[in-house]
Design a protein that fits this description.
The complex is a heterodimer of chains A (517) and B (241). Chain A is an alpha+beta fold and 517 residues long. In chain A, helix 19 packs across helix 20, helix 20 packs antiparallel against helix 21 and helix 20 crosses helix 22. Chain B starts with a helix and ends in a 15-residue tail after the last helix. Chain B has 241 residues and is an all-alpha fold. In chain B, 26% of the residues are buried. Chains A and B meet through helix 3 and strand 8 of A and helix 2, helix 5, strand 1 and helix 10 of B.
């Protein structure tokens, strides 16, 4: 057993309102620089939708992540040792800037400085690359809220194995639903970007598992951009270096939550440390059946209270403060104890350490589409608990809304469980049971038997339901972010002043980030 | 005479000194801008037709010249049969044409793409211009003064060797046609420019990738050792190994 610590995250998608505050917080701190304008280390996508860069999940195009090779071993899909070195002069799978979008600004000064004339002056859009006027074709969240449109939602790669009838049903006007998917770097346990970097510039920090790119070693071979299946490494076209989310490590080291998480309006984000068994990384990543990946990844995360685990952690030099943080970790609860949070696209086999609680609302918020007159009857305050309508909990079939979800479970399964519908159903049932239980406690119009039936059907008890409820809805800052104290006296990075990083390359060193000759 | 002395004695030594000092300086002092400065992210399609033939062609030509320098006897023995001489000469000429085609595509691409003009420095144009000149001169030499693979081994290899043993002997070079002389002189100029241009990337081609494990996990240092009571406190900060 080789115990290591990993800073890990949970995003609760039912709570995300898609306000992009996280993206803006990140942009203002890290990527408001030349060559980085197009980068959104944190971005929020509307699902179903094509995302950023366009159709990033489609690995037939981008060739990211790991795949099983003939002997059952893992190989990088689009790069790797031999292929990477042979393709170094021209990487056939590299996305170009148009796959993201051409960054732009507006000539605001024209509004003020234009000479007097017959026409109203306008602020024309200009490219931030060439400085010339452009027609804006794309933006960072161009398909925001456009779920259901043919150009975006229907091109979602996760629809690939849904039947045409299922897809049609999804996009009927009355049944249309969507949710938001905020994404940052997953700081994977088996990162493809690290493996693909020919220079060895990318590394995972042993102390907390943050994946970083050494800006002085990066030589612009750009294999990481291809390798990351989440497209979360970005190439800075101006400096000729790759960059990625650094999980705000200067903030983490001084005890602050990362900017995206700190600023989150919906308080959907949780961050904590988990202890995992590094001996298992290879075995789990090579799991035969994609549908087993979630369960096996979950089993890598060790119980921070088990004496054997604590002893092994201490032997590996993990400080007591980190073990204590792991015991209070909200991530451990969501992922391991309650089994509510799932990794995004586990089938890429990078073992991502950012977990999502899948959204229940778009699945169940059905207005009984069979009866159109019902819509008129619904109280606009949405406080109604009309049996069999909003929350279909009192029908004969307790899980009716989940089984016949208006949002096909297959779609959710393609996102979060590698196609395993059972896996997603278990989670949604738990979420539903918590709602029914709390309805019973706070409003009282659900009978105790009904609530108990819901809980036992989901395999949880009332105590756990209350704990889930508390951490989901009432959690304070210190409950949501349990950041292990970083031992400043031990780390090189930690002696640097955070302010130095702003306005330079964002990596805290003082050499001017000048492009080479 | 003075010009020959300068071009074939002064210039090579200046170039070597500039190359060594410049490389060490650049690698140590300005590590951040040490990069191949790929522009594929801004334009990917034309780059394929430029970069791929250019690079493979120039690698072949570089090793061709190197082999003729290192094992001249082997080359002469190979060339002792006319058919084999023809194979090596035609092969080298084709690689030369490949480089010329690739380089022309690269220059055309830089000239026509507006985005690329924003990431093109004067040094890029200098390098591309010099390389183009050098390739054209090389092809000219190969066509006009034929069977260079043989006479190179007999005349230029001894000259280059004399440079390395610090007893420069330029009689043979001085008698060469002007085109050959220019080709040699430009080679030294390009060599000297490596540390001051994007050409630095040839020095860091990541061959070590082949025998490195895929995953890299770095600790600030071995924590279990540093926390052990038997480990002595040192004032030097420990390093990763």
């Amino acid at each position: 057993m080789d115990i290591r610590a990993q800073i890990s995250m949970v995003f609760h998608l039912d709570k995300c309102i898609g306000c992009h505050t996280c993206s803006v917080a990140c942009k203002n701190i890290w990527t408001d620089r030349k060559g980085a304008e197009y980068m959104w280390w944190n971005n929020v996508e509307t699902k179903p939708g094509t995302g950023y860069p366009t159709r990033w999940e489609d690995q037939d195009i981008y060739k990211g992540g790991w795949k099983k090779e003939r002997e059952g071993e893992l190989g990088l899909r689009g790069s790797g040792k031999l292929r990477g070195l042979l393709n170094i002069f021209h990487n056939p799978h590299l996305p170009v800037i148009d796959d993201y979008y051409e960054p732009f600004t507006y000539k605001y000064l024209d509004l003020i400085e234009s000479p007097e004339g017959d026409d109203q002056p306008t602020a024309r859009p200009v490219s931030l690359i060439t400085g010339e006027p452009i027609d804006i074709k794309m933006g960072p969240n161009w398909d925001d809220d456009l779920s259901g449109t043919p150009d975006y939602a229907r091109k979602d790669p996760n629809l690939h194995d849904l039947s045409p009838a299922e897809q049609e049903a999804m996009f009927q006007l009355e049944r249309m639903a969507m949710f938001y998917l905020p994404r940052i770097c997953n700081h994977c346990l088996n990162p493809a970007c690290v493996a693909a970097c020919p220079s060895g510039a990318i590394y995972k920090r042993g102390e907390d598992g943050v994946v970083l790119i050494n800006q002085q070693v990066c030589r612009a071979w750009r294999m990481c951009v291809t390798a990351c299946p989440y497209k979360k490494t970005y190439y800075n076209w101006s400096t000729g270096k790759s960059e990625k989310c650094i999980l705000c490590y200067p903030r983490l080291e001084s005890g602050h939550a990362p900017a995206c998480m700190h600023s989150c309006v919906g308080r959907i984000r949780y961050l904590g440390v988990v202890l995992y068994d590094a001996d298992e990384i290879r075995l789990v990543a090579e799991t035969e059946d994609e549908k087993d990946l979630v369960a096996r990844q979950r089993s890598m995360i060790m119980d921070p209270f088990a004496p054997g685990v604590i002893e092994a952690a201490k032997k590996n030099g993990i400080p007591d403060s980190t073990i204590q943080a792991a015991q209070r970790s909200p991530v451990y609860k969501f992922v391991r104890e309650w089994g509510l949070a799932l990794p995004l696209h586990p089938e890429f086999r990078t073992l991502p350490m950012l977990f999502y609680v899948p959204p229940l609302l778009p699945v169940m918020a059905s207005l009984g589409a069979s009866d159109s007159s019902q819509a008129a009857k619904v109280n606009p305050m949405a406080k109604v608990w009309d049996e069999g309508r909003l929350y279909n909990s009192t029908t004969e079939e307790l899980w009716g809304t989940i089984d016949q979800a208006r949002f096909p479970l297959k779609y959710m399964a393609n996102l979060f469980t590698g196609g395993d519908e059972e896996g997603i159903k278990v989670v949604l049932k738990k979420l539903m049971a918590v709602r029914i239980w709390r309805r019973h406690v706070t409003v009282g119009d659900v009978s105790a038997e009904r609530a108990q039936e819901a809980l036992s059907g989901a395999g949880i008890d009332s105590e756990m339901a209350d704990a889930i409820y508390n951490l989901t809805t009432l959690a304070k800052f210190d409950d949501r972010f349990v950041i292990p104290p970083s031992h400043r006296e031990q780390a090189i990075e930690m002696v640097e002043f955070v302010g130095d990083a702003k306005g330079s390359t964002g990596f805290g060193f003082k050499e001017q980030p000048m492009r080479g000759l | 005479m003075f010009l020959d002395n300068f071009l074939f004695i002064g210039l090579p030594y200046i170039a070597i000194i500039i190359f060594i000092v410049g490389t060490v300086y650049r690698y140590r002092a300005t590590k951040f801008n040490y990069s191949s400065l790929s522009s594929q992210f801004l334009e990917g399609k034309k780059l394929f037709w430029g970069s791929v033939p250019f690079h493979w062609g120039i690698i072949a030509l570089f090793f061709g010249h190197l082999i003729a320098f290192l094992i001249p006897r082997g080359v002469l023995a190979w060339n002792s049969h006319p058919l084999r001489l023809l194979v090596i000469e035609v092969g080298a000429f084709i690689f030369g044409l490949t480089v010329l085609f690739g380089l022309s595509m690269l220059i055309y691409r830089r000239l026509t793409n507006q985005r690329l003009s924003r990431v093109t420095s004067p040094m890029d144009w200098t390098v591309e211009g010099l390389l183009l000149l050098q390739v054209i001169l090389g092809l000219w030499v190969a066509y006009e003064f034929r069977w260079g693979s043989s006479w190179f081994a007999a005349t230029l290899t001894p000259y280059l060797r004399s440079l390395f043993i610090l007893q420069p002997e330029i009689t043979a070079v001085s008698a060469m046609p002007l085109v050959v002389k220019l080709h040699i002189a430009f080679a030294f100029v390009i060599f000297a420019m490596i540390p001051f241009s994007r050409l630095v990337h040839v020095l860091v081609y990541p061959l070590h990738y082949l025998w490195r494990p895929y995953q890299r996990v770095l600790w600030n240092w071995d924590k279990s050792r540093i926390r052990h009571p038997d480990t002595q406190w040192t004032k030097e900060s420990p390093r990763n190994t």
